[in-house]
């Protein structure tokens, strides 16, 4: 069994309980981001992540480095680092550094990029999907090669390195877990089966378009078949689900008031958000757990302490592993 096929201890832990990670949107100051991550850690969330949209948010890897120094326990996740925004050699270096600074708490989430206006603003070409998917595979090959610590050469169609070696390496054993974002059933989920420790998709047009519970169930069946095809245990992959935005309130009257005044991230995109009382939110997340979701990632308004606290204290403790686990 290769190192990539080894079940990561953090992934194995997911087979025994439901875990949640959180992200605070709309925060513009570094101090506020630190406070949000520290609050998530105090409330018992498993992880906190950073998006990779450099023209409208804080830099993903600068933010993760800062949070690695400001927290002690919580997992730090790039959700997801675009393979075109940094050369693979730089990505391998930055990820190794965050893993060392955090004492082994990084999850390297990567994706092919879908934000066409952002590519245009950065004067980057936006290749066809097949080319972006191939670039993702090359990136993973290079990152793993550089993490070996030995001189490494790679000649790909999209990326190359020559006699390169990292002098300081990640600290996690057997490796830093890799998350691949997206839910494409022919290619992306096959790539998950071959390369990733964690699968993530969402009811969002940029993240797999899994709008219904039946979509999630179908995609997991496809992932299971891809695992069989490559000879890999299905349970070696942590199955996660991203909720684009969560708004919670104690009762329907308070919820309606928050609904009317809420700021919605990516409001122009096709996505499904959760606006619910704690009881309704439990039903929502439990339905997903029942078809196989093990790990949830949820975005919350960074100034909405009520939703933050209700998610941690009135929802998460009541969501159980489903029958598919």
Produce the secondary structure layout:
Layout: H1 9-13, E1 19-25, H2 30-43, E2 47-50, H3 60-70, E3 75-78, E4 81-82, H4 88-101, E5 106-111, H5 116-121, H6 129-147, E6 152-155, E7 160-164, E8 178-181, H7 188-195, E9 198-201, H8 213-230, E10 238-243, E11 246-248, H9 252-261, E12 274-276, H10 278-290, E13 295-301, H11 305-315
Parallel strand pairs: 1-2, 1-13, 2-3, 3-5, 4-5, 5-8, 8-9, 9-10, 10-13, 11-12
Antiparallel strand pairs: 6-7
Describe it for me?
The protein is an alpha/beta fold and 325 residues long. The protein has a domain at 15-236: TIM Barrel. It contains 11 helices and 13 strands. It has helices spanning 9-13, 30-43, 60-70, 88-101, 116-121, 129-147, 188-195, 213-230, 252-261, 278-290, 305-315; strands at residues 19-25, 47-50, 75-78, 81-82, 106-111, 152-155, 160-164, 178-181, 198-201, 238-243, 246-248, 274-276, 295-301. Strand 11, helix 9 (252-261) and strand 12 form a beta-alpha-beta unit. Helix 3 runs parallel beside helix 4 and helix 4 (88-101) crosses helix 6 (129-147). The longest helix is centred in the middle third of the chain and has 19 residues, at 129-147. The model has no long low-confidence stretch (mean pLDDT 95).
